[in-house]
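Example for tutorial group B:
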């Protein structure tokens, strides 16, 4: 199978462990040169990737309360992170599968991201299991994949909004989650989140790099383009959008103008 066929197979897998394992094996085969990049065929219309029957997908307002004051709330918080990582596998795979006229390095980058997201999923799911729960024991929402569907028509829009908005939010909130878990005594989760945070900086930087590449190809100014897409798709105009982990976002390639805009302090 060529790269697109191999990635499509990964996307369609429903069993979480199998999806993670096959994704990692596919990345290794790709890196070893055993999977060719053949630029033919068209991707299937965007739909839903393979996923297990559970967790049940609900509106965010209907999710279980993630309070560390109860074992269930603690597990619900870890479960939410597991679900994010499961979705992140599909998002990285779809970035490969969907856009077929990018430079070779693009596919290498996003295959590496898929591999690392699968590793994150495995690590965090193992920790959830150590708490006496498993993936699917709590409800979840589908916001990440819904954005993948909305951005399936254009790699520039995908790079702007999935890694640089939705995934970048993880850079902002993860340190606070780590602090709460450390105070609660869950140092094992903190160690996993340290790995995830460092890798996610690289994933967001990958999105930044290819977003700017596409802006250059189309003679578009990156900062203005990002702001326009943010307001068009996120439904938020100027105004404070939340505190940012600025050093992490700077490492991920955000400009000063972008950071000021996102914090509501720039023009």
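The residue assignment follows.
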């Amino acid at each position: 199978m060529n790269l697109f066929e191999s990635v499509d197979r990964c996307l369609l897998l429903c069993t979480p462990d199998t999806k993670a394992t096959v994704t990692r094996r596919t990345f290794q085969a790709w890196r070893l040169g055993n999977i060719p990049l053949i630029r033919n065929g068209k991707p299937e219309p965007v739909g839903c990737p393979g996923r297990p029957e559970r967790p049940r997908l609900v509106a965010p307002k209907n999710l279980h309360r993630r309070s560390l004051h109860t074992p269930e709330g603690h597990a619900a918080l870890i479960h939410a992170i597991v679900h994010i990582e499961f979705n992140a596998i599909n998002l990285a795979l779809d970035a490969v599968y969907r856009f077929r006229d990018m430079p070779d390095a693009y596919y290498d980058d996003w295959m590496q991201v898929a591999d690392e997201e699968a590793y994150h999923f495995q690590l965090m799911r193992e920790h959830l299991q150590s708490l006496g729960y498993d993936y699917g024991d709590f409800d979840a929402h589908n916001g990440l994949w819904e954005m993948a569907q909305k951005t399936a028509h254009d790699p520039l829009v995908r790079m702007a909004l999935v890694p640089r908005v939705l995934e970048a939010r993880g850079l902002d909130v993860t340190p606070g989650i780590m602090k709460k878990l450390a105070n609660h005594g869950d140092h094992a989760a903190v160690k996993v989140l340290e790995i995830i945070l460092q890798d996610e900086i690289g994933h967001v930087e990958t999105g930044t790099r290819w977003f700017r590449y596409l802006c250059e190809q189309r003679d578009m100014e990156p900062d203005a383009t990002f702001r326009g897409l943010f307001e068009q798709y996120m439904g938020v105009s100027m105004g404070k959008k939340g505190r940012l982990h600025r050093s992490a976002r700077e490492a991920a390639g955000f400009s000063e103008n972008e950071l000021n805009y996102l914090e509501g302090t720039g023009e």
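The mean pLDDT is 93. Compare this with the pattern of hydrophobic and polar residues in the output above.
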